[in-house]
């Protein structure tokens, strides 16, 4: 993607003898207060749009330079009133261009690609699957794939490679054909699109308002360019908003028993088709004024 250019079958078993009734598995217990973690206001991006509010948790562990750029531009009001100029249904919604054509960017220099990151033993990471030679799980709310821990001992920095996975709600940075050409334009995933993995920098994930992302006006044409597009009306870090206007978000802690039960439930429901993208981490949002 350049700046201009993302049933289950039901089986019935007939028994020769009497039909044996099977009780449905009880739902997991409601999470306890300790099963939640608060997102810091300095890592919560508040995107108000003409269709409603989107809240994005930033992930500086994955892309520190890109997160710093998003914070800088938000603080300067750069994103206010910019269009969602490229929106493709079943793919993504793109914005951040002051020209509204796909050719614009901020006055700051382009960023070096942060397509992968280094994960050490001190980085908070919750695995949910372990395919051969890899671990798949979460850093904060962001789904990631990484090399296994046992490879850390053999690396110079005692860390292993990891990268964000483009599940619904994941926030990525748009760029031109060159790897180091991201600047101000970004996109939010409407659906999963794994072809983007390790090709575009992941810097966060929508934790509230995915329905808003999916409601943004989409283009009827393959290029995704939208006429009379929806707009971002204001973009700020929660920390930069007045206290009375500041939303707060509690995310289910991925280290909790409640989260493990949620993962088990998703795995049982999907069977062999289970993917980390099937896991929706619950959030409790206090909207603010």
Keywords:
single chain, 289 residues, 8-stranded antiparallel beta sheet, 5-stranded antiparallel beta sheet, 3 helices, 26% strand
Summarize the helices and strands and which ones pair or pack.
Layout: E1 36-38, E2 44-49, E3 52-58, H1 64-75, E4 86-88, E5 92-95, E6 117-119, E7 126-129, E8 135-139, E9 142-146, E10 160-164, E11 170-173, E12 186-189, E13 202-208, H2 210-215, E14 232-237, E15 248-252, H3 257-270, E16 283-286
Brief summary:
It is built from three helices and 16 strands. The chain has helices at residues 64-75, 210-215, 257-270, and strands spanning 36-38, 44-49, 52-58, 86-88, 92-95, 117-119, 126-129, 135-139, 142-146, 160-164, 170-173, 186-189, 202-208, 232-237, 248-252, 283-286. The longest helix is centred in the C-terminal third of the chain and has 14 residues, at 257-270.
- Our measurement of the CA-to-CA distance between the termini, rounded to an integer number of angstroms, reads 37 Å
Give the strand tally.
Answer: 16
Largest sheet: spatial strand order? 4-5-12-11-13-3-2-14
Average pLDDT level: 91
What is the element string, with H for helices and E for strands?
EEEHEEEEEEEEEEHEEHE
Main sheet, how many strands, which sense, barrel? 8 strands, antiparallel
Stretches where pLDDT falls below 50 for ≥5 residues?
4-23
Annotation field: number of helices: 3
Any idea what the radius of gyration is?
Answer: 20 Å
Q: What is the structural class? A: alpha+beta
The residue fraction in helices comes out at 10-25%
